[in-house]
Amino acid sequence: MVATHVLSCSGENYAQIMGLTGGQGVQAAFECAGAVPAMQAATRHAQGRVEVRSLVTKVFSLHETPEAFEWVEANKDQVIKAVVRP
Asked: Helix or strand or coil: residue 68?
């Protein structure tokens, strides 16, 4: 699979995506920034076909944030996504 287009999440680009895909929507959406607006846009454009729970390696509470960074560094070969919840 190769990226054929890269779109900004800064505006509403749903119509552009639907136009580029002949009304099919995207097969995959990659969000690499970790920014909430980007994740929301990627999920919205994948039209509910994103199963993200399997990508979360470990969940930390907000007060565990320092430990989360240490854990990710110590386990970087095994971590897909670490989540810090407020």
From this structure: helix
Sequence-distant contacts of 79-82: CB under 8 A, at least 24 apart: 80/55, 80/56, 81/55, 81/56, 81/57, 82/56, 82/57, 82/58
Q: Whole-angstrom Cα distance, residue 64 to residue 30? A: 27
Name, in order, each residue with C-beta under 8 angstroms of 60's C-beta and a sequence gap of 6 or more.
67, 68, 71, 82, 83, 84, 85
Query: Consecutive 10-residue runs of the chain (86 residues): their mean pLDDT?
Result: 68 76 76 71 64 80 92 89 86
C-alpha angle 20-36-28 in degrees, rounded to nearest 5 = 35
Indicate if the alpha-carbon torsion angle 46, 41, 61, 57 is positive or negative.
positive
Alpha-carbon torsion, ordered 45, 50, 55, 56, to 10 deg: 80
| Strand 81-85 versus strand 56-61 pairing type | parallel
